[in-house]
Design brief:
Order of helices and strands: HHH
Structural class: mainly alpha
Number of strands: 0
Helix content: 55-70%
Radius of gyration: 18 Å
Largest sheet: none
Number of domains: 1
Length: 61
């Protein structure tokens, strides 16, 4: 799991001075978004590796 400092760019994007929630909630949201991005990359890699040869050839053009 990443540290809060590693997630600071995401925290900065979603933080709001007008928000009634504390930094812990923002940190949790940043962790969730980071994990979703990781899962998306893994899913894309799996889909690419499992695609039929004909689909992979079509994607090359």
């Amino acid at each position: 799991m990443k540290t809060k400092s590693e997630l600071q760019p995401i925290i900065d994007k979603i933080a709001s001075a007008d928000s009634p929630v504390g930094m812990d909630a923002v940190y949790v949201h940043a962790l969730i978004l980071d994990k979703l991005e990781q899962l998306e990359r893994r899913l894309m890699a799996l889909e690419t590796s499992c695609a039929p040869v004909s689909d992979q050839a079509a994607d090359a053009y």
